[in-house]
Design goal:
Length: about 180
């Protein structure tokens, strides 16, 4: 089974988790890099988004992932938080597109289920499992870093299957025409 390199992005405007892993479905993944890109909430939004784009570009250029997995933005009660998360997500999507990388999105419950076996896992359980799965000596901190690594692991383990299903569906649709 071929090893793939995946960049996981836990989007956030103040703290954006970024994790890169190598792995193959059904096999342990290994840590390549992990970071949290931060910005000052007092800065102008354009500066914050440009900083995020620059930092993501550097990481993609340095590590050359084969695909990017981003947490799907979901509705929260705090509209301001959703807007910032959506903006950060759009920057990650744009960075992947600039490098011609396939992009996949996963809901928080999909990631939790892939990594812990339960779509209802809490932050502590996620961090514990990411630490164990990547055989790390210390847990990745803050939680945004662990979440980004969980996204990358989720895609390694589920992405191949997801891609095969999408390809089969596309083929079936084109054959019906």
């Amino acid at each position: 089974m071929r090893t793939v390199r995946v960049l996981g992005v836990d989007p956030g405007l103040t703290r954006c988790g970024v994790g890169i892993v190598d792995g193959a479905p059904g096999r342990p993944c290994s840590l390549v890099d992990v970071a949290v890109i931060t910005s000052d909430p007092g800065q102008d939004i354009t500066d914050r988004l440009l900083n995020l784009e620059r930092e993501l570009t550097v990481l993609i250029d340095k590590h050359r992932p084969e695909s990017v997995a981003v947490e799907r933005v979901f509705s929260q009660h705090n509209v301001g938080s959703v807007i910032g998360t959506a903006q950060a997500s759009a920057v990650a999507i744009l960075a992947a597109a600039r490098f011609g990388l396939p992009l996949y999105t996963y809901t928080p419950s999909e990631v939790k289920a892939a990594v812990t076996g339960s779509g209802q896992a809490d932050k502590k359980q996620m961090t514990t499992m990411v630490t164990r799965l990547l055989r790390l000596d210390t847990p990745p901190r803050p939680a945004d870093a662990a979440d980004a690594l969980a996204l990358a692991i989720c895609h390694v383990w589920r992405g191949g299957t997801k891609q095969k299903l999408e390809n089969a569906l596309r083929k079936a649709i084109s054959n019906d025409r």
